[in-house]
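Progress note, project year one: complex with S-adenosylmethionine.
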Amino acid sequence: MLSYQHAFHAGNHADVIKHLSWMGVLNHLKKKNKPFTLFDTHSGAGEYDLGDELASKNKEFESGVVKIASVATTDDLLSEYIALCQSFLAENKYMGSPLLSAMLKRDMDSAHLMELHPGEYEKLCRAINPRKFSACHLHHRDGFEGLKALTPPKPNRGAILIDPPYERIEEYTDVVNAIERVLGRWKQAHIVLWYPLLSARAEKKAEASLVMREQLAELGIPCFKAELEVVENTPDSGMYGSGVFVLNPPWQLDVNVSKAITEIVPYLGDNAHFSLDWVVDDQ
Ligand code: SAM
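Model obtained:
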């Protein structure tokens, strides 16, 4: 079953925490004059037209990027993200994670961008034009299988973004298996995993998500979780926020993400709340 289409959610609060965190990782990797490789296991379409039928159905971007796009800030990570949002919003668009990777990586770096849905893959190919973006490898394949086949990269500096739709409850265990497998071969990979925060209405998935995070913690790798809640967690609220679980976080990513998101929380509504907690401490 591949019915999820990210266009319905493009630019929402979940994209904000995920994309800011991913940019924080890229900024860290770019500090050294050495090449790195990025992996995006669930790329989506790459670029979203906020005026199209799907994005304008629930206009989720209005309670996400639109709310923060004019925040004045001196924070480096946040100002870089806001500047990008502004340039895309000026054309009524929003950028997906693979486009962020393609735009922000340097020519010496490479990116493997995977997407399984045929229609989304076609859009991804249009968004990431190889004539414009060097060393971006587009793959029409299962991201978990692709991660296994393509890692470790040489040289082994790099990062992985895992952003499944969690349509199927099995995806929570697929994530744990994929991360365990990749860390067995590429111990120092920086990994950013996005996950939804779900109310009691989605009890089984909420439980599976918790178990996923507990199993990841048991791997014993330094990791933190950062969560952005936007509405109150009542039994019926559905997805009341989301988080990123970061394994092998780059130095100071926790500080940089906290600073950036704490600044925008007041713009995201009265019930918005951000927290960041180390799950396994960095020794
Ligand atoms: N990461 C994107 C971003 O931030 O712009 C959004 C990705 S969206 C949440 C999840 C995507 O994963 C969907 O486009 C879906 O078609 C794709 N997908 C679902 N199962 C997949 C799999 N096993 N391998 C690769 N892609 C998959």
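The chain has one domain: 6-278.
Residues 61 and 189 are 31 Å apart (CA to CA).
No further modelling is planned for this target in the current period.
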